[in-house]
Amino acid sequence: MKKPIILFAILVILIIGGIFMYHHFVLDRIMDKGGMENPNTGSEPEETRENSETAELVSFHWYQNAMSYDGCFTFGVYAAGEDAPDPRLYCSYTDMETGQRIEVGDECDIAACPTVPLDRWKELSDFLRNAELPAYRGPAPNLPDATNSKIQVTWRGGDEQFTGNYDGTSAHELLILLQDIAGEVYQKAHR
C-alpha cells in the first residue's frame, strides 16, 4: 500500500517540477527576461522622421487604451480626396465636462464620416508639424494595465508617403484640440 502512494507522490512532484521548468525556460524567455530579442517589448522607442514644411497631412490616428473606460479614446482624421483634402473624422471619447460618451462617424466607413472644416484640418496639420511628440514606446509587457497611447501621423511629401508613430501619453494640448474639432463637427452633424 505504501508503494503506490510513494509512486503517486513522486509523479506529482515530477509534474509540478516540469511545470516550473517550462515556465522558467520557455515562458520567461518569451517575455524577454532571458536575453532573447523580441521587437515588441516596448523598451525601445520607434525611430521617427522629421517631416518637411511642404509635406501634406494625409491621415491622423490616435488610440489610447487605459485602465478606466473614460481614459480610452480613438480619433481618426483622414483626407479622403486625392487632389484636394476632404478630411473625414471619426472618434469615440468621453467628454470630461459632461461625462457623455461622444461617438462621431464610423471607422469602417470613412466616406460616411462627417467632414472636418478645412481651416480646422490646417490647424491640426500645423499643430502636428510643430509638436514635439516623443517617439512611440509601447507599454512594458509586464504591466498589463499600463496606458497605451499611440499616435500615427501620415504625411505626403512629393511622391513619398511616410508615417510617424508617436507616444500620446503627454499630448494633452493635442487632445484638447481634437475634442474641440470633434465637438464642432458633432454639432454640425446633429443640427
Task: Quickly list its features.
191 residues; alpha+beta; Mago nashi protein; 2 domains; six-stranded antiparallel β-sheet; 6 strands; 31% helix
User: Secondary-structure element sequence?
Assistant: HEEEEHEEH
Number of helices: 3
Radius of gyration: 24 Å
Gross CATH architecture of the largest domain: 2-Layer Sandwich
Distance between the termini: 84 Å
Helix content: 25-40%
CATH class type of the largest domain: Alpha Beta
Instruction: Briefly note the structural class of the backbone.
Output: alpha+beta
The unreliable regions are 32-43
What does this structure look like?
With 191 residues, this protein is α+β, with helices and mostly antiparallel strands. The protein folds into 2 domains: 1-38; 56-189, Mago nashi protein (2-Layer Sandwich). Helix content is 31%, strand content 25%. It is built from 3 helices and 6 strands, in the order H-E-E-E-E-H-E-E-H. The chain has a 6-stranded antiparallel β-sheet with strand order 4-3-2-1-5-6, with helices on one face. Strand 1 and strand 2 form a beta hairpin. The longest helix is centred in the first third of the chain and has 29 residues, at 2-30. The radius of gyration is 24 Å and the shape is elongated. Residues 32-43 have low confidence and may be disordered.
